[in-house]
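I am writing to request your help with a piece of structural work I have in hand. I set the record out below, with my sincere thanks for your time.
___
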Amino acid sequence: MNELLEEIKLPKGYRPSEDEPYMNPKQRAFFRQLLLDWKQQLLEDADRTVSAMNEEKAVFADPTDRATLETDRNFELRTRDRERKLIGKIDKTILKLIEDEYGYCEECGVEIGLRRLEARPVTDLCIDCKTKEEHLEKQRRPDNDQVE
């Protein structure tokens, strides 16, 4: 695969199609750009959060207002932490694209499906394997409804 993904010019409004060979260079370039755009948005959101927190110099005499601000900040920081982990997953996925290993289920090796990848570009399991994984996780969780 001599063609670099960043050099591929996609037609305006291009979307991967089932009529094309699966994970051809055009499709891989599409998903690479989708991932890069998503990562850029997450980084911009993080920058806005940091700026907003640095600018917030509010001093509240009322403990309830202070508690509300702290709760909001904690929520925002938890959200950014999840996004930080997502950025790592995006980077890992971009590497898989470059290495031509993207789009195949890590569990069973089948094609994941273009629409699933568009909906969740960092997914690494086909729908069947993901369903099975979620079912197993549900079985492992303690049943909180039982009275002891």
